[in-house]
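Anyone? Bumping this.
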Amino acid sequence: MAIPSYATRGERIWHYVFLGICALIFLFLVGPLLIIIPLSFNAQPYFTFSQKMLTLDPEGFSLRWYQDFFTSRAWLNAIKNSFIIGIASTILATVLGTIAALGLSSRNMPARGAIMALLISPMIVPLIISAAAMFFFFSKVNLAQTYLGVILAHTALGIPFVVITVTATLSSFDTTLIRAAHSLGANPTRTFFKVVLPLVTPGVVSGALFAFITSFDEVVVVLFIAGPEQRTMPIQMWSGIREQISPTILAVATMLVLLSMLMLTTLELLRRRGERMRGLSPG
Amino acid sequence: MSESPASPLTTADGVPLKVSLRRAVRRSKIKAFLLVSPLLLFLVVAFVMPIFDMLWRSVDNPEVSAGLTRTVEALEGWDRQSLPDEHVFSALAEDLQEGQEARNLGLLSSRLNYEQSGMRSAITRTARGLRTMEPPYKEALIDAHARWGEVDTWKLIEREASPLTLSYYLMALDRRLTPDGEIVRAPENQRIHVNLFWRTFWMSAVITGLTLVLGYPIAFLLSNLPLRHSNLLMILVLLPFWTSLLVRTTTWIAILQSQGVLNDVMVAVGVIADEARWQMIHNKTGTIVAMTHILLPFMILPLYSVMKTIPPSYMRAARSLGGRPFLCFRRVYFPLTIPGIAAGGILVFILSIGYYITPALVGGQSGRFITNYIAYHMQTSLNWGLAAAIASILLFVVIIFYLVFNRLIGVDKVKLG
């Protein structure tokens, strides 16, 4: 955003003021996430910087909260549960969602608008309402307090993300490529695996990532329908924040921030790959 | 063309082209629907049915008719003016006796207690004394608890014997039925829900406004920078978007609490005294700050995608026609961004009124949302009918906004990341 050469002095000043305001807003966005990273190395059981930390005294820092995390049976169990539930519901949501997206992107799909609205609804309905509803219903059919119940619930919550990302990929899919493949002598199977799938995969993978992170970060539904057996990471954090605030939570938070950075990088790479394969950007 | 114009075009195997085309379309329709059907079936079972079950629960009223079968039957033809006859009282005694033995008086007594406090103790105390009671039951029961001597009690039982009730909705709106069936406001000290609904909407509106004020400049900057720089800055927006909700809530606790980072900094700098640390969390401020932070990306992303499509030449044209910068912005640029403001605004508002976790953790008493009351009635007061009614009202509000959103923007236009 360059300043035009005809800008007056007042406009120039405003330009820099504006950039300053934006910098402050960016600080508001990212600052809180960065502040907890050093806090998680606090040697003291506090949620703030100690005097020793500020003077960069090595004694002020320690890995005790990370050690606490990796030696705690409750936390490790919660991680295990989160992965079991997250992976199972991601697979279910991705398979069901991708197949449905293939149907939805057909030109002859009947009642597409209504069906789309229904498929997206788990994303729009407030979680507390979904949680209450599933609690009542799953208790009736003996799914409450079971792994299957939580997995099915998380599948439902993850589905909109898969449907949205995959239909978006398919809508920008150039069908002439299929005809081109056919005209070059490829049979339908070969065309699907060599042409369609590589182009759609980025959408499917990012949909799957969304579904996984939805499950991995979901508290409310688990809070209502899971039993003590299915305690997940977010539940462990939730009760940690409510009961005794131990900086172990900050260590967990730091690791989760790093995880989201990893996710973000993956998605960015997928997006670039998708663009490159469509020939939208060089290199 | 060897064919005469009268004979229709046919495919190679002799079927008229029109028929063949219609067949092909039907086949492709069926194929498309078959692809979608597994997911539809799944969602109907795992999501839609639970929601309908909850809606049903908000009006379902089985307790009295199931728990007091004989009494309800005996009450038929009662004149509603004077106390019922002995046969109604003996039916009640029988019903309570049976309930006591089966140990299922709890549901019945809580249900009646919602309508009229004191009914729980009336039922439990009477049921406990039943064994030593002798007919005639009319005197015996009135002796055991004065409630049975009031006409209103019987009116209540008669009314609540109906299989459907509106009383959970009335309770959710701080109203109640008088014994004669009129709707009145609940006593002052029991009016909580309507206030909470308004507070939720009000605070969500404030949060939406704040995200707009903070998001607009960022979206503007991102859409006007060269792609190379804006991609980099976009990461700063997407990082919080991708970070766990609990992590973001936790960081605000670490920053805002009275022994937290912000207060410590202000004490160290000397802005405030050590004893006068600000209470910035476990109240409205906490909820508003944390939720503004959490929902800000949901405002920036739609705004950005709209601003991206506004050609910069419009502003240049306006300037070249002599407009001052602010005027050009107000008359040319701003109106073009209104679709983005609407999209982001509705999205943030819908998400905000449904938030539960953040208000529960940082809201304290004054920053609580109506969602926290749904959880309270689900888990603590165990008044599930009331929880279902509040949830249904909230769902109704969300659906209205969702429909507006869909009409204005379209769900399939929602972009993620």
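Late reply, but here is one note on the structure posted above: The CA atoms of residues 83 and 160 of chain B lie 17 Å apart.
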